[in-house]
């Protein structure tokens, strides 16, 4: 059977700041992120399966990505937990209820590595994460490909 790739697109709003960065992105700022998640596998051949002919139900992929990434990061402020300022925001008031402290610099590149680690454990046997594209602005995006990983 042929390998087929399917892609689901997601949109979410997130703010971040890059600790120690030498430009404007050291300041808290936001993006309207677009995330494209592509998986690869063989279409189901079991004639008794309600998913006959599908690599994976788009709804199942949507649920995984929403639960693992979008629901947590949408309208959140993502900061490197090593930032002293970030620690001061936690528990301050309800404006800072959605602050995520991560153990990496929250660049698009590092966010994709994080996303891959969150998604992969939820994929069924025979289905693999193939690639992801995270668009930060209209003219800028980062890509992750499974084939490029060690």
The domain tally reads 1
Instruction: Give the beta-strand count.
Output: 6
* Sheet with the most strands: spatial strand order: 4-3-1-2-5-6
How would you characterize the largest beta sheet?
A: 6 strands, mixed
Q: Can you offer a commentary on this structure?
A:
- By secondary structure, the protein is α/β, with parallel strands linked by helices.
- It has one domain (4-148): Tetrahydropterin Synthase, Chain A, CATH 3.30.479.10.
- Helices cover 23% and strands 34% of the residues.
- It contains three helices and six strands.
- A six-stranded mixed beta sheet has the order 4-3-1-2-5-6.
- A hairpin with a 2-residue loop joins strand 5 (128-137) and strand 6 (140-145).
- It is elongated and about 55 Å long.
Q: SSE layout and pairings?
A:
Layout lengths: L3 E13 L12 E13 L16 H16 L2 E5 L3 H6 L9 E4 L5 H12 L8 E10 L2 E6 L5
Parallel strand pairs: 1-3, 3-4
Antiparallel strand pairs: 1-2, 2-5, 5-6
Keywords, please?
single chain, 150 residues, alpha/beta, Tetrahydropterin Synthase, Chain A, six-stranded mixed sheet, 3 helices, 23% helix
């Amino acid at each position: 059977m042929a390998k087929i790739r399917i892609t689901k697109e997601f949109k979410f709003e997130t703010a971040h700041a890059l600790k120690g960065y030498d430009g404007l992105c050291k300041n808290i700022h936001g993006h309207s992120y677009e995330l494209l998640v592509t998986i690869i596998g063989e279409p189901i051949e079991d004639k008794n399966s309600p998913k006959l002919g599908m690599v994976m139900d788009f709804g199942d992929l949507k649920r995984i990505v929403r639960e693992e990434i979008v629901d947590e990061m949408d309208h959140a402020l993502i900061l490197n937990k090593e930032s002293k300022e970030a620690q001061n925001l936690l528990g301050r008031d309800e404006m800072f209820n959605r602050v995520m402290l991560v153990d990496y610099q929250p660049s698009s590149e590092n966010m994709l590595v994080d996303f891959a680690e969150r998604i992969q454990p939820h994929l069924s046997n025979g289905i693999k994460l193939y690639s992801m594209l995270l668009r930060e602005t209209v003219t800028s995006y980062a890509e992750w490909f499974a084939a490029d990983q060690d």
